[in-house]
Design goal:
GO terms for molecular function: heme binding; iron ion binding; lyase activity; monooxygenase activity; oxidoreductase activity, acting on paired donors, with incorporation or reduction of molecular oxygen. With 500 residues, the protein is of the alpha+beta class. The protein has 15 helices and eleven strands.
Length: 500
């Protein structure tokens, strides 16, 4: 390994209230805010939702859709139709939240209900999940939610000692593949390599074997993708040419893709998990769960929630670090290598002593959250507050939070559109309360009584170890990125080995 000793280009000392990126935004719950009508319109029945859908996917694009209405209404809270609309959604009418103060109402289970809103205004058929409403679609008030989430916590706790060792081996294989391909080509698409590696890790963590040793075979992630895509494709556009947009809209935004088309693939996935995860499926009875139901829920947790999130997160980490450039690569490498040498390896304790690494991961989760949408129904008549005003919401109305705007709120974060690797270092770590990627504040913990991701800490750990292993092995890299479905596509151009 090379000896890198650049000076951190960050404020010194770290940090005090006068330094950049430490803020004290207005407190939520200001009784003096004026009460206003929620601006916006749903338009004519059927026609309004179709027009909004075309703006969202084609005319304005995802961010453009929200920005155009924010500018029009001069409000971060407004009414519009959420995608995908007719005929997939019975009611596409939503109240949209785009700021950091209003957004957390979506986490208050005393005021909102999360039943069947995991995918928003529509819900995929339960035939995708063996006929069960899996935990992601349950509200915390439903008894089964408590049982399933308790079971998930138990499963994760039982695998705690395997988190890092299994991941490090998996990442060695990932980087070997990336390096090998780049040695014979001028550029390499990182996403397929990343997808394969992340699924292999998730499967091996829960099932104690490689998917290649099961009916899934060596490309098990592709089988999972075939099952996963029909459930989320109504929320994306494939980027087809303009003359094909109408065809795409009819095929993937108008009617749900029937589950029977992927039933054979799901049967293969179920067989693999059912036969390989016996040790943890046997624990289901302790939580009042049938083995069959536990297996379908485990598949959703592993393949949809975890693998689906890592499909977005892995490329996102390299996208933003690639843009940050070699100085920040050197800074990270210096911190990582110094701590690993001092601690004698890559351990939980070592990771906690890497403040720059922690900040980088949180900053990526802030600027490009893996799950951009959150939804809920109002349980009662309630009042939502933004920075500037209060708004009445009626019982039963759907609330739709677009997270990338909330976590890029300029009244909370300075230069919110800029990737700042040290944004959460020192006292500025307090602003993690405004990072919402896990369906909850980063400063709060997932519990059986909330909808925060049970694997939140595992995802953060995976992101940190990914970068640790990378910068133990390489000094720097170059890449290009582009928008890809709900995330980013990353093309590696070069890798510079440590010490070369």
């Amino acid at each position: 390994m090379s000896s890198l000793s650049p000076t951190y280009p960050i404020p010194n000392p770290l940090f005090d209230e006068e330094q950049p990126f430490f803020f004290n935004p207005p407190e939520e719950g200001d009784d003096q805010l004026p009460l206003k009508e929620i601006p916006g319109s749903y338009g004519l029945p059927f026609i309004g939702p179709i027009l909004d859908r075309w703006d969202f996917y084609y005319n304005q694009g995802r961010d453009g859709f929200f920005q155009a209405r924010l500018d029009k209404y001069k409000s971060t809270v407004f009414r519009a139709n959420g995608p995908p609309g007719p005929f997939m959604a019975k009611n596409p009418n939503v109240i949209i939240l785009l700021d950091a103060v209003s957004f957390p109402i979506l986490f208050d289970n005393s005021k909102v209900e999360k039943k069947n809103v995991f995918d928003g205004t529509y819900m995929p058929s339960v035939n995708f999940t063996g006929g069960y409403r899996v935990c992601s679609f349950l509200d915390p008030s439903e008894p089964k939610h408590n049982a399933l989430k308790s079971y998930f916590f138990n499963v994760l706790a039982s695998k705690h000692d395997n988190f890092i060792p299994v991941l490090r081996k998996n990442l060695t294989e990932l980087f070997d593949t990336l390096e090998s391909q780049l040695s014979s080509s001028k550029e390499v698409n990182f996403n397929p390599i990343s997808d394969s590696a992340s699924f292999n890790y998730v499967f091996q963590l829960f099932c104690d074997k490689s998917p290649a040793e099961t009916v899934l075979g060596p490309q098990g992630n592709k089988t999972v993708d075939i099952w996963l895509v029909p459930q989320v494709i109504p929320l994306v556009t494939l980027g087809v040419p303009k003359f094909l947009q109408l065809v795409e809209d009819l095929l993937i935004h108008t009617f749900p893709i029937p589950a029977f088309l992927v039933k054979p693939k799901y049967k293969t996935i179920f067989e693999a998990f059912s036969s390989s995860a016996s040790s943890i499926l046997e624990k289901a009875a302790d939580f009042g769960l049938e083995r069959d139901e536990a297996c379908h829920n485990l598949i959703f947790l592993a393949c949809f929630n975890t693998y689906g999130g890592l499909k977005v997160l892995y490329p996102s980490l390299f996208k933003w670090l690639g843009r940050a450039g070699p100085t920040w690569h050197a800074n990270l490498a210096k911190e990582i290598r110094g701590v690993v040498k001092q601690e004698g390896g890559v351990t939980f304790a070592a990771l906690e002593k890497m403040p720059l690494l922690k900040s980088v991961v949180y900053e990526v989760l802030r600027i490009e959250p893996p799950v951009p949408f959150q939804y809920a129904h109002a349980k009662e008549d309630l009042v939502i507050q933004s920075h500037d005003a209060s708004f009445k919401v009626k019982k039963g109305e759907m609330i739709f939070g677009y997270q990338p705007f909330a976590t890029r709120d300029p009244k909370v974060f300075e230069n919110p559109e800029t990737f700042v690797p040290y944004r959460f270092m020192g006292k500025a770590e307090a602003n993690l309360k405004y990072v919402y990627w896990s369906n909850g504040r980063e400063t709060e913990a997932p519990t059986v009584d909330n909808k925060q991701c049970p694997g939140r800490d595992l995802v953060v750990l995976v992101a940190r170890v990914l970068l640790v292993e990378f910068f133990l092995r390489y000094d720097t890299f170059t890449c290009e990125d582009e928008v890809f479905l709900v995330g980013s596509k990353v093309i590696f151009k070069s890798l510079t080995k440590a010490g070369s």
